[in-house]
Amino acid sequence: MRGDNNDTDRGNANRRVEANEEEQTDFVFGRHAVMETLKTGDQQSINKVFVQNDLNSDAIHDLVKLAKSKKLIVSQVPKSRLDLLSDDGNHQGIMAAIAPYSYATIDDLFEVAKAKNEEPFFLILDNLEDPHNLGSIMRTADAVGVHGIIIPKHRAVGLTSTVAKTSTGAIEHVKVARVTNLASTIKILKERGMWIFGTAMDGQDYRTWDASGSTALVIGNEGKGISPGVAKLMDATMTIPMVGHVQSLNASVAAGVLMYQAFTSRQGD
Length: 269
Prior knowledge:
Blueprint lengths: L1 H22 L2 E4 L1 H10 L5 E7 L5 H12 L4 E4 L1 H7 L8 E5 L7 H10 L5 E5 L5 H14 L3 E5 L8 H7 L8 E4 L2 H10 L3 E11 L9 E5 L8 H4 L4 E4 L11 H16 L3
Parallel strand pairs: 2-3, 5-6, 5-9, 6-7, 8-9, 8-10
Antiparallel strand pairs: 1-4, 2-4
Helix pairs in contact: 2-3, 6-7, 6-10
């Protein structure tokens, strides 16, 4: 009986250690997101790859082959384990356990623009809360060549597995800086020659916006919009005309519309 109890205790201890490790780990799930992570992430940042043990598709086979070529641990697990780790997300039979995402500095964002020999173009997200919105915004930001995204440390969504999944790999390409105070950061950006634009009901028609030059675009919170302390720092504001019954857009949709206007106006630089 003593031996049985020791075995049980060891098993419980192992499970506690494993659970603790998972609590300190971020997860990327879904085939596109995992593929992008395997292709662009360094080996030290990827801890393990989990694969649903009853799947044998070509897509899964290719992902497993890539993971093994990078000498990563590949663990075959039941679907229920993936459901648990992804919080019932659409994992598509594969997940990667990674070290928590690291954040860039403001200087890093300027370096991205400098390396491309372009005027800086940043997004500032004012207390965005929905990880799906952040992921979608990152996907569009990558498409239009945004040099970096700035988010606040508190009362806002950060880089999570849901953001990674929604971004379909853009999280590996768009740098994100997390700052303590957005208003103070905007003042620093102004000192470095950036023009700061936001949205407001009485702003100019966004279709007339010229975003050439050193530019930062502020996107407000899903429900409250741009906070008063940040709003008063805008150099100019824009509005998106609407003729339907609903007079507001989802934050990621509005951000996409504005980013593409910026992209169009900057093409002549």
